[in-house]
Each structure stands twice: as C-alpha cells, then as structure tokens.
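Input record, target 12 of the design panel.
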C-alpha cells in the first residue's frame, strides 16, 4: 500500500518515489572520489601511489627520449606532486563532509517540521521489510518518540548513509601523502642507483602492489585488477616513450 503526503514535503510524489529520490540524494552527498568500498585513507594511499608511479614513468619516458638528466626534475616534481595530492585529498574530504552535514541538517529539519510525513516514510520502509499490523505500529511509535534515533534511522534507511565509515579529511589526506611519499622516495632511490631501468621497475612494481591490495580489500579478482592496471600503465608509458622517439 502506498501512502500519500502533502506536496510541500514530497513535491507531489508518493512515499515510494520520495524514498527513491532520497536514496539518490544520499548517494550524491557521500560520493567518494576514491570509491565507497574502501576506507578513505587506504584508497587515497593506493590511488596516490598508482598515480605517482604513472607520473614518474611519464617523466622518465620523456627524459629518456630527450636525453635529459632527470634527478633534479624528479625531486622538484615529487615535491610539488606531494603538496598537490595531499591538499587535494583534504579538500575533497572536506567537501564531502560539508555535503553530508547539509543532508543531515535537511533531514533534521524535516523531522522537526514534517513529522506526519516522516511517519509515513517510516511505515513505508518497515512495511517493505516485512513488518505489519501491531508490530509495525509499535516500531514506528518507538522511533517517532526519539528524535535522535529517528534521525539516525532516516539517514541510514532512507538516504542509505552509514555514518561510522566516514573519516576525517586529514586522515584521508595523510593516506594520500603516504602514497606519494613512499612511491616517490622509492623511485628516486631507484633512479639514483640505476638511472636507466630503476624507475620503470619500481613504478611498475608499485602499480602491481597497489592494485593487488585494493582488489583484495574490495574482494575483486586479483589477477584481473593487476593485469589491467599493469597493462594500462605500460601502454601509457610506452606510448609516451615511442612518441618522443618519433618526434625527436
């Protein structure tokens, strides 16, 4: 059974349509630039490591074809890249928290000013879960009696949010910083001791390790993830290298 509500809250839609729109709203508000399956700091570190490895490979390919010494450019680029990735990760995290806070405040306002409609939403959601009759009435009444619990339920059930998994932006930024720092340090050491092939070996190894770790935590196929990431990185590097040879 579908319940009807005044248009000022549901905008002329029934409860089921409103709940679908709310889910979309929650998905937009909590969209993760690094994905939603992994903790923010872990995925930020893995993505930053892979991106840093690719950036160093491209620089290596360009410098090798042109015959330029690359130690100083690598150091300068690594420093700037470290600042950029760390700051960008923090800003993205803050933006995500701001969107989340706005959604929470909007839902809190709806609870305070549209209680009848919120009650209809609760009934619709718990009817879909299999509740009915007296048990359904009791569940709805208990939740409506506690605004804090009601807010949490509406955020999790209506909007599809899981508040426990959200991290502080600085923690996510720290993950990105570590990903860049570890990869850049390893690449610079490899280049210093083995200028010709140190960078490709270390950077491709970083791509393999980072791809394997993210695939493992996301419960995806390890082999597929490693092969596709490795192949794409190798293709990009080879394209830059041979284009440089062709132009040069």
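The sequence produced for target 12 reads:
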């Amino acid at each position: 059974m579908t319940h009807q509500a005044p248009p000022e809250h549901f905008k002329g839609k029934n409860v089921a349509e409103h709940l679908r729109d709310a889910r979309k709203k929650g998905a937009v508000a909590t969209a993760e630039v690094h994905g939603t399956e992994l903790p923010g700091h872990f995925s930020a570190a893995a993505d930053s490591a892979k991106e840093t490895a690719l950036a160093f490979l491209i620089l290596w390919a360009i410098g090798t074809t042109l015959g330029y010494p690359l130690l100083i450019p690598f150091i300068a680029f690594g420093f700037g890249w470290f600042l950029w990735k760390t700051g960008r990760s923090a800003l993205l995290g803050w933006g995500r928290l701001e969107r989340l806070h706005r959604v929470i405040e909007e839902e809190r306002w709806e609870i305070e000013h549209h209680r009848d409609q919120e009650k209809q939403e609760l009934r619709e959601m718990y009817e879909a879960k299999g509740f009915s009759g007296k048990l359904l009435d009791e569940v709805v009444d208990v939740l409506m009696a506690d605004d804090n619990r009601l807010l949490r339920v509406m955020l999790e059930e209506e909007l599809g949010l899981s508040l426990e998994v959200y991290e502080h932006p600085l923690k996510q930024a720290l993950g990105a910083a570590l990903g860049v720092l570890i990869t850049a340090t390893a690449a610079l050491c490899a280049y210093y001791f083995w200028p010709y092939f140190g960078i490709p070996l270390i950077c491709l190894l970083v791509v393999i390790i980072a791809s394997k770790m993210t695939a493992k935590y996301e419960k995806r196929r390890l082999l597929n993830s490693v092969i596709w990431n490795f192949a794409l990185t190798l293709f990009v590097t080879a394209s830059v290298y041979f284009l440089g040879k062709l132009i040069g």
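The CA atoms of residues 126 and 136 lie 7 Å apart.
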